[in-house]
């Protein structure tokens, strides 16, 4: 049997980026997944990106990941959300051909040197001297490696709910992965928790009355920084055409049906113990919580070119199937719609993330990394972002590199992981721009400028790619320099450009720069003072973070802490004061206390030595 | 809930043609299948057609089915097998892009008017007064209809074997369907039996040394009669390119590995009770049975454009996975090959076909039809052919039409179904040209001339299509008439043409006829006397079949029959003397006996009346 450096378990969105990152860093990498045909399957929405999620896709792309290019190559339509607002919240989003996305992704993995794909279910870990040394599969194979990344998504003890019907499974069409969950608990002693998520019904095109719906076409745009020379229209998508989405609304009848049947929802009658996401609520949640609203918007999204199924974005539900039929038929345009697949909710095990480091290694098992939905997040992009970091760190560990940790001022991925490991999760975690303190730094348009160097330095991005960004950066900086020095009407060109009335073209006139570079300069000029302010905040935060917290600090016996702070600090064990300060329920006064405590402890150590 | 005419359970190759046939005949048709994404999945080989199977695809196509066109639209390469031999055994075969085949087929169903696709597992049948009236699904839905077609493939109590490892499942990636099997036994009182089939491992392209293999390219050709104006090269396949296959051979080392490990095969150590197919044997079967052969040929077939997986045609096995690795590595060119998916065998329940009529209705349940692998066959084409007949008959029953039964002299599909219902099955049934008595009548090139009228008359084929064949037939007949009347050198042109030295062109010279028509005329002329002889045999057989056997005939008390004949006749209950004569173990003398017995019975009835 081959000797692997890194083994990834689970070929979802997290496992994909983890596998690619690891192999691209030169580690002999094995991906074990239950069904090769389901690599990169979109369990829910056939769409990538959106608010804050689009930022993450750009970040993954900037660091050499695949999600952006794969989305571009399978897009049915592209949209820049929030484009009427400030650049910090612009968010790219694409509707994809679900099957093309999957197939192309599978092939990317298969083609990648040093990456080996193997169909099997991982059942349990074998440990030796505090390290994980092997994973055992259903076929009795025992694969050894130096580091492992676990990316089981919604599959660990997955249980699907269709109203009162319960079926074991990771999602429809896939069996659950129960054994690995037992192994985490029993062999590795990890604490697991239970979360849930849901998906709406799919209906058949020929039964939809599109005339009653509002048509929404896409625009030109794309995710990847690496195909900048290719227009959206010229990307090779195997000839698939562009497709519109449609907008509809629920009616008073929808509200009535749901209100009358609410007691049948497993979320409301107690059959699901797990906690669902507040941010992707089911239609019964929405009707229940926003009782004053008469109608909710829904999007009808095509699932692909070779299917007549439409995804009903907005009516995720776990109500019984007969109620689902009534809900669908109550929506104007869907009076005669036929449900091809019913909506359902799925409950699954999560590795409680207080056991995890920012590198995504587990605190008690330093060569086992966790990424994706099993860390308590929800969403393909969140999963992929974690996968990239976990895969890089697994390969980094094998190569003897220090961990790769993105900071909160460097990437949404950093914000997300830091949130996960410092905040109690009580529902699936989803990214929002509001989760970031430094939104003007973390824009979707500058992910390459923020992250490509980091990725290149860590070995994730080849020099040919990094060079492009390096050259772009030089061009931008030189031009900014020039604009600051050249003056007209008593002000520098830079000052002119900082006015919202002006554009680069109006200030400079004709130039050789690409639209991309002009846009960067313009944003830098316009938002300079806000950006500067955020940078100062970052500095302050960094100074705080410079104070590492020794592992030996004992919160339980520290006087002056509230019980909540004491418990959370013991649970999360923050690595520095910055992280401690971000824990919900820990006050600035308590941070001061801890700081004093650390000083005292350090002095006592000196005396001992 | 909608009122359906016909409900099909199972969206494999049988269920697909059944659904389409039923809906095209105007019946409101519901297809219930476990996973919509797996409609038309090729569980094994990514290829359609081959010896005798290619004939069936042509027959399906001639009758308005979809398999031929779908194959053409997803073909990676086409070949006419046996083209150096006589026209009776020419057999078209195409390698397909597995995923494209599936996706396109799914969409064909979704687009078909009156056909409704629904994702669910059918659990049990509800009966009333000797009729099936509804099927119940896992979601608690109870769908009613006037006729049902069951097409569960390898899924009923499916059990997969990877050496000693046993996993329940219909095939990898799909759960088994156990409940419906229980319902057949317990609710419907049917007799089930157990069969098995197997599939080889898939290996990754980047680990194959193609230089050690022999490359095989395809040729120009296609299945469908309905795209005759389109050249192979111009069929829309979404831009997928053509791909070669490769030929390799097992080595002495392969033989050694298998011989040493034979005791580990569940087929040899008794862990599989079911019976496998002699015609698609596993590699251990081949090594065991042909012990004198040093080496066996294998074909490496691409699984599609968007995958690097290759199918190892020829080494299907259920040996343990570590032995599979050794087998693969013993093949020159595969020394370093990595297995992405292991080979396995699957065992499943079959509805013993002696309970089935030639219409594919079940004798005790006249509105429940069965088609495909659950009738004991193996192969996509065999399944699809049955599906078409079962679907047509289900819709025909609802419309009050007499059953559509293809005779042994009309179609391979007829031969197959008649074999199934008259012969004891002890292994999965596969079609061969040798199974047909009238091979010169049942050619792959004349399926349209044989079957389009039958399909049109039954309502399966629209007039626009039938008209094309009608016109072709007229052209052929008029031309044959002319050739018979026109003379040169003392012989009619027809007589000249009957010589194997001549071709239509050499005899007639320039003409306006298409190659297709010229080929038909040439074959008709060359093989006229053989064709005539077969037609006479058909007539004799028909005279025998004119003697229907009354249902009341009691074989158990008929003197003069051998025990074997008595048992088989009671079991199969042939509908006429022709069918009785085809039952294995029933002699011509016994047929005479039965004939006398019938006469006597009829006279006794007359007296009674
Ligand atoms: C019903 C449903 C509804 C959802 N709704 C939403 C939504 O509304 N919004 C949203 O943002 N997200 C939603 N999601 C979540 C989204 O699908 C996930 O966030 C995303 O797919 C997570 O990616 P992942 O890589 O972590 O795991 P997954 O995509 O779940 O992939 C896990 C992979 O690991 C494999 N695997 C698991 N265990 C093993 C094992 N032991 N051995 C080998 N392989 C294994 C599985 O086969 C699978 O391929 C939904 C998911 C489901 C199932
Ligand atoms: C491992 C393996 C190896 C094989 N090897 C060969 C080979 O070497 N040569 C060869 O010619 N053939 C082979 N076959 C057989 C070939 O796949 C079948 O002959 C063909 O697919 C049969 O078509 P079908 O329509 O009868 O059933 P299938 O293609 O098996 O389709 C059955 C469908 O019904 C659905 N279904 C089943 N039960 C239910 C239910 N209760 N409710 C709803 N849906 C249901 C399933 O999900 C599936 O979609 C192999 C099959 C397998 C699994």
From TrEMBL, chains A, B:
It comes from the Bacteria. It is found in: Cytoplasm. The keyword tRNA processing applies. Belongs to the MnmG family. This is tRNA uridine 5-carboxymethylaminomethyl modification enzyme MnmG. NAD(+) binds at residues 276-290. Homodimer. Heterotetramer of two MnmE and two MnmG subunits. The gene is mnmG. InterPro entries: FAD/NAD-bd_sf, GIDA_C_N, MnmG, MnmG-rel, MnmG-rel_CS, MnmG_C, MnmG_C_subdom, MnmG_C_subdom_sf. NAD-binding protein involved in the addition of a carboxymethylaminomethyl (cmnm) group at the wobble position (U34) of certain tRNAs, forming tRNA-cmnm(5)s(2)U34. Its main location: cytoplasm. Its cofactor is FAD. Pfam families: GIDA, GIDA_C_1st, SAM_GIDA_C. Keywords: Cytoplasm, FAD, Flavoprotein, NAD, tRNA processing. FAD binds at residues 10-15. Gene3D superfamilies: FAD/NAD(P)-binding domain (3.50.50.60), GidA associated domain, C-terminal subdomain (1.10.150.570), tRNA uridine 5-carboxymethylaminomethyl modification enzyme MnmG/GidA (1.10.10.1800). Residues 525-596 form the tRNA uridine 5-carboxymethylaminomethyl modification enzyme C-terminal subdomain domain.
């Amino acid at each position: 049997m081959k000797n692997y450096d890194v083994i990834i378990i689970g070929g979802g969105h997290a496992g994909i980026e983890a596998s690619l990152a690891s192999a691209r860093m030169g580690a002999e990498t094995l991906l074990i997944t239950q069904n090769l045909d389901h690599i990169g399957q979109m369990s829910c929405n056939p769409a990538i990106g959106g608010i804050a999620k689009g930022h993450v896709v750009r970040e993954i792309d900037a660091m050499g990941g695949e999600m952006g290019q794969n989305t571009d190559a399978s897009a049915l339509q592209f949209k820049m959300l929030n484009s009427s607002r400030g650049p910090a919240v612009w968010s790219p989003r694409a509707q994809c051909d679900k099957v093309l996305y999957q197939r192309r992704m599978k092939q990317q993995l298969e083609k990648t040197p040093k990456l080996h794909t193997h169909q099997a279910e991982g059942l349990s870990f074998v440990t030796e001297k505090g390290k994980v040394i092997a994973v055992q599969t259903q076929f009795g194979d025992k694969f050894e490696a130096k580091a492992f990344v676990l990316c089981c998504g919604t599959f660990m003890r997955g249980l699907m709910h269709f109203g009162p019907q319960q079926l074991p499974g990771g999602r429809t069409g896939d069996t659950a992965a129960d054994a690995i969950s037992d192994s985490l608990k029993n062999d590795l002693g990890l604490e697991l928790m239970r979360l849930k998520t849901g998906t709406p019904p799919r209906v058949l095109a020929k039964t939809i009355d599109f005339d009653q719906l509002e048509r929404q076409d896409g625009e030109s745009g794309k995710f990847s920084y690496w195909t900048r020379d290719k227009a959206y229209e010229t990307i090779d998508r195997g000839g698939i055409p562009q497709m519109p989405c449609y907008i509809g609304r629920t009616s008073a009848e929808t509200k009535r049906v749901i209100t009358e049947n609410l007691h049948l929802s497993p979320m409301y009658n107690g059959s699901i113990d797990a906690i669902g996401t507040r941010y992707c609520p089911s239609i019964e949640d929405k009707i229940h919580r926003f009782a004053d609203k008469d109608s909710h918007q829904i999007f009808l999204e095509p699932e692909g070119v070779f299917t007549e199924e439409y995804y009903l974005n907005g009516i995720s539900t776990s109500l019984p199937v007969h109620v689902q039929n009534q809900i669908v038929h109550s929506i104007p345009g869907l009076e005669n719609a036929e449900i091809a697949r019913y909506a359902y909710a799925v409950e699954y095990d999560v590795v409680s993330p207080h056991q995890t480091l920012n590198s995504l290694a587990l605190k008690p098992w330093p060569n086992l990394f966790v990424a994706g939905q099993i860390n308590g997040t929800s969403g393909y992009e969140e999963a992929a972002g974690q996968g990239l970091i976990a895969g890089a760190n697994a390969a980094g560990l094998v190569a003897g590199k220090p961990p790769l940790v993105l900071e909160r001022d460097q990437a949404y991925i950093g914000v997300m992981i830091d949130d996960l490991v410092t905040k109690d999760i009580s529902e699936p975690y989803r990214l929002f721009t509001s989760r970031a303190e430094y939104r003007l730094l973390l824009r979707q348009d500058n992910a390459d400028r923020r992250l490509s160097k980091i990725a290149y330095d860590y070995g994730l991005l080849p020099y040919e790619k990094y060079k492009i960004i390096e050259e772009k950066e030089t061009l931008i900086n030189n031009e900014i320099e020039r604009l600051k020095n050249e003056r007209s009407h008593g002000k520098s060109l830079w000052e002119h450009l900082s006015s919202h009335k002006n554009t680069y073209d109006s200030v400079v006139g004709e130039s050789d720069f690409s639209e991309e570079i002009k846009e960067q300069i313009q944003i830098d000029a316009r938002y300079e003072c806000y950006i500067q302010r955020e940078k100062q905040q970052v500095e302050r935060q960094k100074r705080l973070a410079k104070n590492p917290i020794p592992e030996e600090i004992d919160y339980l016996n520290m006087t002056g802490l509230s019980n909540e702070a004491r418990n959370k600090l013991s649970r999360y064990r923050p690595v520095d004061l910055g992280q401690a300060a971000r824990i919900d329920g820990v006050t600035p006064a308590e941070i001061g206390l801890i700081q004093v405590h650390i000083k005292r402890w350090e002095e006592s150590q000196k005396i001992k030595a």
